[in-house]
Amino acid sequence: MTRIAAVDCGTNSIRLLISDITRTSSAPSGFTAHEVTRRMEIVRLGQSVDATGELAPDAIERTRRALRNYVNIMKFENVEKVRMVATAAVRDAKNNREFFAMTAELLGEVESGAQAEVITGEEEAELSFLGAVQDLADDAGPFCVIDLGGGSTEFIVSEKGEELLGAHSAAMGCVRITERMMPSDPPSETEIEIADDFVAERMSEVEKLVPIDKARTVVGCAGTFTTLSALAQGLEHYDPEQIHGSVLRFAALRVLLEQVIHTSAAQRAQNAVVHPGRADVLGGGAVAVRGIMDMIERHNGVREFVISEKDILDGVIWKLAGTLPVLK
């Protein structure tokens, strides 16, 4: 058995997954992955990146503190190998050298030479797909996986274990939409209209590049989708087991989205299932989901999202496990 870790640093959050990898001939991949621990902290690394083109010093510091905590956990759990990926916020920032130096210093305590790496939108899409469909039946495909992040949203259509039929990383996410177009709290009708138009433009790009019409199952993953599922189910607390595999039907979801978009961050935060660090950007995420549904309805008969708690982190673990020369 080999204990490995994945860290995903996005625009809004930094997350950790530690898994035990065991060699077994009964698994098609030749190994199994058993989750040890999964953590998430809102650090808003992408704070103002869209406006300034740079990572804010206090955002880097928040991320450093969170990663310091994760490294301590990895050392306590005797992690042998780690991969950290960074996506939209770091990819877009002109001053990302400070960020990379910080990650190298901390991750080096776990594995010599380890540091964050910026992955392309294409690899982000591949990893998100690999993680999101792990628990879904093969015959439910082709799948369209939609990973809605803080700065970008990945759209991927494929069968399990096959080459991607199409993928695109759209430059929209809950933080980007909120900061750029919905700064008021709650947003004005004009701001919402501008945000709707922005999302529609991004969806016109997706329509040209991704075969949405081929998907039999549409999978939504990451914080906006999972939080909406918790709200739709009326959960008293955030419960990943009840959220994973749940279904959000478009007709009912549209009613919920209207409520989320027009309420204030303080009102959203009063619900125990909404993370305090997500309350102010959930409205922007809701606008994105509404535009995504509009696009799907133009090209596909599917009228529901299957919600996955698994995503790029699980994809990183799976890919990392496949590179291990010897599984003890």
From TrEMBL:
The name this protein goes by in its record: Ppx/GppA phosphatase family protein
Lineage of origin: Bacteria, Bacillati, Actinomycetota, Actinomycetes, Mycobacteriales
Ppx/GppA phosphatase N-terminal domain residues: 33-299
A Pfam family the protein falls into: Ppx-GppA
Xref: InterPro entries: ATPase_NBD, GppA/Ppx_hydrolase, Ppx_GppA_N
Secretion signal, residue range per the UniProt entry: none
